[in-house]
Amino acid sequence: MSSPMQFRLAMSWPQACVSAYYVAYAENPHSTRFDCTIPAQDSSSSFPIAKLAEKVFKILFYLHLFLIAVLVIYLTIYGLVYASHSYHLYPKQWYWYPPLLIATLCAGIVGFTWQWITVRYTTKAIGAAFCLSPLLTSAMGVRFVHIGSSPSLALGIVSLVSALIQAIYGFWVSPRFDYANRILSASISDPPTKSMRLAFYSTLIGILYCCFLVCGIGGARAIEKNIVATSLFILVILLSLGWTMQFLKNVLQVTISRVKYMHLSGGVIMDNSVALHDTINYQTGSVSFGSILVPFISLFRGSARLTSLIRGDADVLVFAYARCYMQLASALVACGNRWGFVHVGVYNKGFVQASSDTWDIFNRVGLKQLLDRSH
Questions:
Q1: Helix, strand or coil, per DSSP, at residue 252
Q2: Which of UniProt's keywords are assigned here (predicted)?
Q3: How high is the pLDDT of residue 66?
């Protein structure tokens, strides 16, 4: 699980540049700072409880980090005590550590290397990503199925289905590869200073945090007498890992997109360290909430797209269900989308308000149809 998260974390700053490019263009499409990369297309709302929600999620995020740290330390100590009383020199729980730690380290290295490849060879990187993703996911699924246990069999089936979905999606968006190459090249042509350094530090923090949680997972495996407790502890740790990795990625996205936006919209050169300081001090609540909301909405929209693609010549009932599903997915994206992180950084808005305002701007200038190809 840590491998794709480390990869996404390392690639967050190019994504932030693309988001800032689109939002800055949508707010001022006639600016001379933009070329014809984005083709011509045929005041903020207020949420009274936004500030309260930000404070609540800020407290919840830091509280969850504290509780997870306590849990992992306890499980690690428990695992060490269990190992000291074991008759075996290396208890079987210890065999979990080397592969997980090595996978975490390799994920960080590959993710950071792929970031460099994307900057240097944009066209090849986009095509390779859509080709390698289903192949590697399929290989992982086959490996899980080969293990033979019930949990690994379930993970293997999920991985194989995910690989099939990735392959279908890659085939569906293949006509847009050329446009994606042009927009990505234009967005990262003049990256903010120290972007690679911020990405490196974020990746390093992610690797260290993953290694810390791996110790807790190994300790949880030592609880042999209560399988339910073991599974629950591991699930809680994995959920914490997902939320925290998304938070790190989105902190970097808010920071870089703010710097890029200021440069695109007004020619202002802003220091990355100042933007990062403001993000951590003032926007932790919005970022932590968005880090939960965006993955769920993205998963929902992805399933809606898949339903729409495979409905074919279905009967009236299935067609009505698929249409309703798509309309609900389209409505949800206005409440939470990754483009909203730009306004979170630039205007210090709440995440829902920022997402709604950004989507309204896209709709007003005709970019909604370009960005939201879920219909």
A1: helix
A2: Membrane, Transmembrane, Transmembrane helix
A3: 96
- Residue 157: closest CA among 144, 148, 170, 139: 144
Give the CA distances from residue 75 to residues 22, 67, 134, in Å, rounded to whole numbers and listed in that order: 46, 12, 35
Distance CA 20, CA 139 (A): 35
Closest CA to 352 of 57, 125, 94: 57
Residue 321 lies in a domain: no
User: Within a domain: residue 207?
Assistant: yes
Residue 308: pLDDT band with limits 50, 70, 90: low
- pLDDT of residue 270 exceeding 90, the answer is no
Range of the domain at 206: 2-265
Mean pLDDT of 330-351: 85
Q: CA–CA separation, 207 vs 145, rounded Å?
A: 27
Task: Return the structure tokens found at 193.
Answer: 């200073």
Query: What's the distance, Cα to Cα, between the start and end of the chain in Å?
Result: 31
Query: Does residue 238 sit within a domain?
Result: yes
32 pLDDT band (50/70/90 cuts)?
A: very low
- As a whole number of Å, the CA-based R_g of the chain is 22
Work out the average pLDDT over 329-339.
82
3-state secondary structure of 271: coil
Tell me what the mean pLDDT of segment 100-128 comes to: 80
Q: Mean pLDDT for the chain?
A: 78
Q: Which amino acid is at 41?
A: Q
In whole angstroms, give the CA distance from residue 305 to residue 329: 9
| Contact status, residue 249 vs residue 7, Cβ threshold 8 Å | no
178/191 Cα distance (integer angstroms): 21
CB-based burial, 90-101: b 16+ in 10 Å, e otherwise: ebebbebbeebb
- Amino acid, res. 4: P
- Domains of the chain: total: 1
Assess if residue 369 is contained within a domain. Answer: no
Confidence grade of residue 319 (pLDDT, cut at 50, 70, 90): low
- Tell me the residue type at 153: L
Q: How far apart are CA 19 and CA 6, in angstroms?
A: 20
How far apart CA 354 and CA 337 sit, in angstroms, is 9
